[in-house]
Design a protein that fits this description.
The complex is a heterodimer of chains A (295) and B (366). Helices cover 76% and strands 1% of the residues of chain A. Chain A contains 13 helices and 2 strands. In chain A, strands 1-2 form a two-stranded antiparallel ribbon. Chain A is globular, with a radius of gyration of 24 Å. By secondary structure, chain B is of the alpha+beta class. Chain B folds into 2 domains: 242 residues, P-loop containing nucleotide triphosphate hydrolases (Rossmann fold, 3-Layer(aba) Sandwich); 112 residues, no CATH class. Helices cover 22% and strands 34% of the residues of chain B. Chain B contains 8 helices and 21 strands. A 6-stranded mixed beta sheet of chain B has the order 6-7-8-3-9-10, sandwiched between helices. Classes of the chains: A mainly alpha (295), B alpha+beta (366).
Chain lengths: 295, 366
Amino acid sequence: MKNNLKAWLYLLPAILFLGIFTIYPLIDVVVYSFEEGYNFASQTYSGVGLYNFSYVLRDPYFTQALKNTFIIVIITVPLSTGFALLISLGLSKISKLRHLFQTVYFLPYVTNTLAVGLAFMILFKKTAYSDGMVNLLINAFGGESVDFISGPYWAKMLVMCLYTIWIVLPFKILILTSALASVNDTFYKAAKVDGTRGFRIFTRITLPMIAPMIFYLVITGFIGAFKAYSDEVALFGTDLNAAGMNTIVGYVYDMLYGNSGGYPSFASAAAIILFAIVFTITLINLLLSKKSRLF
Amino acid sequence: MKIVLDHLTKKFPNRNKKIGGFVVAVNDFTFEIPDGKMIGLLGPSGCGKSTTLNLISGLEKPTEGKIFFGDNDITGLPPEDRGVGLVFQNYALYPHLTVEQNIMFPLQNFRGDKKLTKEQMKEKVLEAARLVQIDELMERRPSELSGGQQQRVAIARALVKMPHVLLLDEPLSNLDARLRLQTREELRRIQKETGITTVFVTHDQEEAMSISDMIVVMKDGVVEQIGKPQEVYDEPGNLFVAKFLGTPAINVFKGRISNGKLFIGDDQILDIKGPSDGDVYVAIRPEGFIVDDNGKLCCRLIAHEVMGRDSSVVASNESFIGQSLRAIISSETKVDTSLSDIRFDIKPSKVFLFNSTTEERIPFSI
């Protein structure tokens, strides 16, 4: 009992902070999402019900944000994990210059989002002086210039996905290279003595051995991609609705503070919807990874 | 299939680049391993025994020399084309596969005409599993097996593709003492049943002596002695081999020969014929001592340890090299521990003389 008291005392600061700044707001969001027309200033609301949800779900800005978010998630999570795996495999095979390449691949991780955004601007943005480096390349091969930043939807989405993959790649490479390095070398020796071909070694030994790490990356990748917002701002500015490139988190932010701001009830409803989506997908992921838990 | 190692040499570049040059792991190893025999490569760690095994398996390429399986030169062949089964020290069982899948793994790699049907594979796997008596554990994963069972699975996996040669790297070192005894008999049985030429590496001389047809004692990449276990024990070629084989270790004294008499300190031990006068190392096996009040070798008694079947006398002598000498005597022999000195008679057949500079054996007769 005495020990228990001591333990609680140690935990108290963390509990206090988490309670005030995380748990209480979380509960509050749920409450707001059911209170119709809640007003911060007067602390009043007109009724309780599901109107907030039905409004948000019918709001074209929200459906656009939902669509954008899903496209980003579905494209970037598998692609970035796949690329990271390829690069990590490559890195684990070379011995010369390995550390140099590891550093190079890790650089985007320590680079500011907005700085990377600027680099992408140089690559893709049309200005009065230039069409951007990518367009110069397209032109060189005889193609027409494409306005990647304020042009057609697919072009903007392409840049968005490239950017997202580029940003999340370093962390995944870091995790996967260490996962690959942790596979005991004797497994490969044993496979070699048994005449196993390279591809089979990869699918039957390497992949199962690093599967837990891949699952970890996929789950955190999904969560991260669903929460995308700052990367969009870095590329397309703060008025994402106008650019048609808003995300769910962007929509929540706009509802609170944006041009159409001052609607905490709608923002809360959208946040709850996002939570429901992320929760469901994470659950599915966990179930899948448990089912294929290999050892 | 016989294995011929012909002037086999392996050099590794020195890890410490400042020193540069090479470390010679295996130096000019020539030996013909007869067909169907079990050979123990024995030596202290770092002596090149594992490298030798890796050279035979093909995981390492020799710097010089050739390896033949039968009459075929396989020096340039990759491991998979040599037909070797290798059991690793840590077994290297794939943790995500069941026992059956582990054993089947090598068979699934077969290509072309060697490719087997599912039924053939199952049959072969079952055969191998029966041989090592694990056919009831087929659905388990390695983590659900004991150390000894894992070892058996690893052997089954090495045997399932019917290799010409079975290689075992420290096969018993991960097992506890009781299991080690059991498994080494088991290894011997499996080897006898299959008749596969087997080479295994160990640093445990007891293990090597108990189950091999021949042992190869190595030190610093050089083969010190090759022979049947008992022969090597009874007739060590040099001081290193004499010291390495046998537990407790052989007792080594500084001695001297003068006028056909062998002295340890001032005690005259034996009358010998053959060697010329001079300083020698005198090595006496622990079982070569007989407690006798009128014995020729006088030592200071330190302790008398009774271990049931026999007992050991721990004593010291000024000419002894090391801390204390140890004699194994029958437990019926009375030792008066109240005395400070003890006298021994020496069995001449348990005494070896070695040159005090080259450490080579000096033959003598009584």
